[in-house]
Design brief:
3-stranded mixed β-sheet, about 325 residues, cytokine activity, lipoprotein, Wnt_C, 2 domains, disulfide bond, 12 strands, Endo-n-acetylneuraminidase fold, single chain, alpha+beta, wnt signaling pathway
Amino acid sequence: AEMAYDECRHQFRWRRWNCAAKKPVLTNNVWTYETNEYPSLFGEDFEPGGIEASFVNAIFSSGVAYSITKACSSNKLEGCSCERNKGGTIAKTTTTKTTTTAHHLSNGFQWHQCNDNVMFGLSFAKKFIDSVELNWNPDRMFTTHAQVMMNLHNNKVGRMLLKENLQQNCVCHGVSGTCSTQVCSKRLGPYRDIGGLLRKRTEKAIKVTLKYINTHRILMPADNQLAPVTDTDLIYLKSSPSYCNKTTGRRCKLNSKKKAKKKPRGGCDMMCCGAGYRTKLRTVTKNCKCQFIWCCKVTCEKCYHQQKVHSCK
């Protein structure tokens, strides 16, 4: 939960809505908040059916799956471990002057590594996160069917993104540094990459509406000209508020004249909602004129310079 929250803050740090929330606190091995009311967790203006909510659901779902998967691979959890490879990608590498080819080795070779157990992580996250929507709770008795379906869909998008972005890592084995044998396994990449991909999908999120086809409830694009929603699309039900009342004091970026046509993310015009901005000078200290001294240390001088910092009025 904490990792997902921090990633949310990072991805939206230059947006009016910056995932500002009551940060989860670990108490007696249980994540708790100052309130149990979901909308107020991210501020009173937060729209549970809005586009920001689609990211929140996806990032928290993927965050739980990611954490459980990594814990399994590190043998930090009972009842799960890394996923053993079956007939996979141990390869013998033959190198010539111009080409490198890989040949699968015989079954007599054994794996020395194993995959991240992402399937266990996905299964756990599905049960844990989706239970909020599937189990009746007095605090959520007024949640609509459309809201539940939206949340479940976005939860799944976040989880499946992990599975889609498994990376193959290989370690070379051989005499005198040669790579005569490769031992490979599939690993999860950095969580920052997952957060970035989800933010990009948020920018292309589809507004949907609940429709009835025979006895089935289906979320369809509000724009009838759009194709049906897929398992990789983030979806939302309602337009979000402007969030302009939360930007006072927020840092913003001043667009340079050279890039006047391209508005930067976090630009003062956008961030401050036209209310203007203040500029202050601050002194920044950095290491400079560094030298390597044999052997073995690096010495640097301290350099000071003035930096302009802009913030919304």
